[in-house]
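Listing S7. Sequence submitted for prediction.
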Amino acid sequence: MPAAIAPTEIGRHLPERGLCWISACSADSQVFREGLAGLSRPDLTFTGIFVPGLNRPSYMLETGAAVTTFFMLPEFSGSGRVAFLPLCYRDIRLWLAENPPRAALVMCAPPDADGRCSLGPVTDFLADIWERIPTLIAHVNREMPATLGTPGIPFERFDAVVDAPQALPEFDPGVDDTALRIARHAETVIPDGATLQAGIGRVPEAVLRALTGKRGLAIHSGLIGDSALHLLRAGALRPRNPITAGVAIGTKALYDAVSGPEFRFRPPSFTHDIATLAGIERFVAINSAIEVDLDGQAHAEATPGGFVSGPGGASDFAAGARRLDGLRIVVLPSTAAKGKISRIVHARNATGPVSLGRFDIDLVITEHGIADLRGKSHAARRTALIGIADPAHRDGLAAS
């Protein structure tokens, strides 16, 4: 049986060196933060799926450890001990297979009747790799809901356990008028019976919330927010297997619901698998961007101040949606900085790398309308995208 320990004893159970996975997303643990405080561990490298705006993982760097991250966060900017790997989800899987962690710090639910601890609403890469990790340390959190879809980790497999209640961190991006206008446009092109994937953020959440009048929908996504609960309660989702996801990040209302039979939580080897996605009819991928250039390419990872995110799973879902009769949608406000900066830009002025190429996008939607890029020449794409830019910026885009 695992040793019952206090948070301050966590350091004694970590290996002398190597890669250490740590729970994040909505399983961000105060226990692990407390347990690592004051430690000097320059021999370790921490990794996980850290969400900008939700997780604050600078405490890992305070131990002297290195960090390998797949999403850039402000807390990591400028640190020489942070390695940013800009990998899509299928490539993260390959990297972890080649670089298996030696230890994992895992938040989980208490053991069920079969002695397994559910990973709750954060069934991420750990669910695919835990069996190959020699040292597992658990934060058993009685406030974490047990979820269906993936067997948990056997309690006896843990080396040490800290039992401590903790509310899950909540996140609600809110909805503004611009997001609502974008959502109303998107609602016109999403059919009944569609299976939906949506990225994180205000606009994708608003789009899903606008679909409560649809019927027969399903969700298959790496991430869900409270919009999934809105659709479920509105009767917009099909009765059989309505929601499949890897991670839930939202409010307490969502966390209270995810243990229900309507939700299935699966690891990226299923949620982001191209073959799985290719077999889903009427699959609609909805992702946001920071900018879209006039060639029809989306830029979603950087601002003029530097990287603020990573590739994530958008390209995986775009590749899957391309196989059948899917639809790949990019949504974004037309401007930033209170209208001063256009987010529809010339390719030469775009910030950061291309996150979704011109072969990965069917529709671009702003509050000013829909640019359908399918089957269009470069000139026609340019015209369509200028047509959904903010009116104040259209002449400048057309003239240069």
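Caption to Listing S7: primary sequence and predicted structure tokens for the chain studied. DSSP finds 14 helices and 25 strands in the chain. The chain has a mean pLDDT of 96.
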